[in-house]
Give the backbone structure.
Amino acid sequence: MAIFLNKVLGNQAMGLGQVHRVLVERRHKSSGLLQGFSENYIPLLFTGPANLIQSVVEVRMTSLEDGQAHGLLHHDFVEENRQNR
């Protein structure tokens, strides 16, 4: 199991800063964030409305926290950077 987790976490770290197509599956039980998987099976948590569940969205992976990848909807990331200029 440890080898599998190291491989998954290594893949997540390689994806930091990149935009991933994510199938949104549900709300994460403890955080309330949207939860989904990228095309290469990286689990991601991010904020967004419930109507995104069961759809594919673009998410920029922004951080790894406690072994979990977090991101921003790509549209939100672009808007946030535009406002910070």
